[in-house]
UniProtKB/TrEMBL annotation:
This is Galactosylceramide sulfotransferase-like. Keywords: Glycoprotein, Golgi apparatus, Membrane, Signal-anchor, Transferase, Transmembrane, Transmembrane helix. Its main location: Golgi. GO terms for molecular function: galactosylceramide sulfotransferase activity. Signal peptide: none annotated. GO terms for biological process: glycolipid biosynthetic process. It comes from Pocillopora meandrina. The lineage of its organism: Eukaryota, Metazoa, Cnidaria, Anthozoa, Hexacorallia.
């Protein structure tokens, strides 16, 4: 009798259905209020990490925003789990109070695994990239890679500059690129990725970039770092060709994509900083490195262990920054006004966000520093070492203790691997993965000679001439 379009149901059944509907409506209303506290739809996700986010919008949910882009199997599972949790909650009898455990379950976040890291120069970004390399490699996630250390830099990023993709959405981009909204947003959709960068006190960063890029020598101010810098800052330089002037003024804003023509334009700089504020979910400050990575860990829903680091690409003691006079410092600030304004802005937003994280942020920070120190003591000897970065550039290295158990040897070894070494390894890993894909779907640009005689299964054998 139970056909849905059969209207001969007994009165009892009708009453039962009516009762069931009332109960359902009651439950929906009751839990809607509960849900509002912890569950926010995809539109909230956009401002989840932005400074305008209210206390509520920063609530972490496990719900992934809907996106047109392909999602991995892993993600699908997370979404399904989240959906199941919700259904369970909805059918819980109303008399059972919601346990605090259940709410925590629902508000638990899931780790972010689509991250664009805009790698700035001389701001601790190699150490950051190393964190992303380790995280992604150990989970077999994919990276946007270039054929070189740089991906198109100093030109603005274009997708064609990267090595071909494997058909899935890339998880990380953390090589040197110059910010380019359109291409980057395409590859890393804003509503389903996190944008992270790191900046540094412009006085220190400029001095470091000036030194590293040998800007003084390039512009004919000699090779003594302190004297060249002083002479350079006496009048500054007039705009030269792009290649030469690239990091000679506002080097951080250059990487972040500000056009040269706006370097002296107050309104444009202000607007560009507002634009960056919208584009980036998190701007880290190199001068507060531990605070920065702990904040990142919390916002990406990672573990403290994931953000442990050993400083990469640090100058040798003999190349240490010279003491700068107050005048030189002031001139660096005046010459790099756009960088100064940008830095001041994001230094403030960093501390505001740390404040909003509450007291347990500092528990994390204390734990983190302890873990870092422990690992350092376990893994590295005090013997200083130097590491060839590229060409003739050396940086401080770490000496791994010789008798380490294999897990520590691996963990600490990866931490001290140079960027170029990591990139070469990741390129090989990618190539190995692509072999099958390329066999099935050859690249149309492949130059290799092709001939249909390569295989002989279907070698042409015409019909024997019989008539
Ligand atoms: C960054 O901001 C903090 C907090 O406002 C301030 O104490 C600190 O001096 C700032 N750092 C720099 C280098 O400007």
């Amino acid at each position: 009798m139970a056909e849905s379009n059969n209207f001969t149901c007994s009165g009892k059944l009708w009453k039962f259905l009516l009762f069931l509907s009332v109960v359902c409506i009651f439950l929906l209303l009751k839990f809607d209020g509960q849900k509002r506290k912890s569950f926010r739809g995809p539109e909230i996700k956009n401002v989840l990490y932005s400074s305008e986010g209210t206390e509520e919008t920063r609530g972490k949910t496990s719900t992934k925003p809907s996106t047109k882009t392909t999602i991995t199997a892993k993600e699908t599972t997370t979404t399904q789990v989240a959906a199941t949790t919700e259904i369970t909650t909805l059918i819980t009898p109303s008399t059972t109070p919601i346990s605090s455990e259940k709410v925590t379950e629902e508000t638990k976040c899931s780790p972010e695994q689509y991250i664009l890291f805009l790698k700035t120069h001389k701001a601790g970004s190699s150490t950051m990239s190393n964190i992303f390399f380790r995280y992604g490699d150990s989970r077999d996630l994919s990276f946007v890679l270039g054929s070189d250390t740089l991906i198109g830099w100093p030109t603005r990023f274009r997708i064609g500059q990267a090595l071909a993709f494997d058909g899935t959405r890339p998880n990380f981009l953390c090589s040197h690129t110059r910010f380019n909204k359109k291409a980057m947003n395409h590859l890393f959709p804003k509503d389903a990725s996190k944008y992270v960068t790191i900046v540094r006190n412009p006085v220190k960063q400029f001095e470091s970039a000036f030194n590293y890029m040998e800007i003084g020598r390039k512009f004919g101010f000699g090779t003594n770092p302190t004297e060249a810098l002083k002479a350079f800052l006496k009048n500054g330089i007039s705009f030269n060709d792009i290649r030469k002037s690239t990091l000679a003024r506002n080097p951080q804003m250059f990487d972040l994509g500000l056009d040269f023509k706006f370097y002296q334009d107050a309104k444009a700089i202000k607007e560009y900083i507002e634009f960056l504020e919208k584009e980036f979910d998190l701007v880290l400050i190199s001068d507060y490195f531990d605070e920065s990575v702990v904040l990142m860990k919390r916002l990406l829903c990672w573990e403290l262990d994931d953000v442990l680091y050993a400083k990469s690409n640090e100058r040798l003691d003999k190349d240490k920054a010279p003491e700068l006079s107050d005048d030189t410092k002031e001139n660096i600030k005046r010459w790099n006004k756009a960088d100064v304004l940008m830095y001041e802005h994001f230094n403030q937003t960093l501390w505001r966000r740390i404040e909003r994280e509450g007291k347990d942020f500092y528990d994390d920070l204390t734990n983190f520093r302890r873990m870092k120190q422990e690992l350092k003591t376990k893994c590295f000897s005090d013997k200083p070492s130097r590491q060839l970065i590229y060409g003739n550039k050396y940086a401080k290295g770490f000496t791994l203790k010789s008798d380490l158990p294999s897990d520590l040897q691996q963990k600490c070894g990866r931490m001290t691997r140079t960027e170029n070494n990591y990139l070469a390894y990741l390129r090989n890993k990618r190539a190995a993965k692509l072999v099958g894909i390329y066999r099935a779907a050859p690249n149309e640009d492949d130059k290799e000679k092709v001939s249909w005689d390569a295989a002989s299964d279907y070698k042409y054998v015409p019909v024997k001439k019989t008539r």
